[in-house]
Amino acid sequence: MTNGSWVAMSALLGLMATAAAHADFTTLDADPYAAGTDVSNISDHVTLSRLTWANGAYQSSPVTSASCGTGVNPFCNSLGVASFGSYTVDNMTTVQTCLVDPTYAGCASPAQHILELTFDTETDFVQFDATYRNNNPVFLAFDAAGNVVTLTTQVTYLSTFTGSNLFGHQLLTLTSASANIKRLWIAGDSGRSSLVNIIDFQRPATTCPVEEPSQ
Fold first, then answer.
1. Long-range contacts at 157-161 (CB < 8 A, ≥ 24 apart)
2. In the chain, N or C terminus with fewer CB closer than 10 Å?
3. What is the pLDDT of residue 32?
4. Preceding amide of 74 cis, omega within 30
């Protein structure tokens, strides 16, 4: 976790302080896992999958951690020492077209690789600490019935690599009006990749038992 990531964590802690008193937040961080480790199920509350377009459909495979390597690579190094991998699509409009028309020519080029999060319980808050090579990572969310969920987006730029917000390190926060996000897809757009290092999400509030007053 880098200095920029600590800024991201501070923002999350601030949100937690103002959120419902018993809301549970879960954090996934790629840094502790050696390159090649299967990190698909490092949390009991979400499953990570890598979706790749092949043979007319999105094929699912496990997510493995990726190392930044030993050379200087600001696109990866700004995140920490590892990531949940690199993901890219043309755009999410193309992705949605492919879901209903797998014969569409744009499904096969550029290559499509998507990070999928499947939550055990629907959520209304997901946050990504990520880098990107073309503007912002793009995303698509579904409810339990497979309907597309409308999301509100907030982007916090933590650093840039070329003096432009089109290339850099950001905190991407996605929220919905109700806890209805069951699956979430994220990738870089325009055929450019996005790396994800830290994922935070909110689980439903728990109810603490009310103690009866002593007699």
1. 158/4, 158/5, 158/7, 158/8, 158/78, 159/4, 159/78, 161/74, 161/75, 161/78
2. C
3. 92
4. no
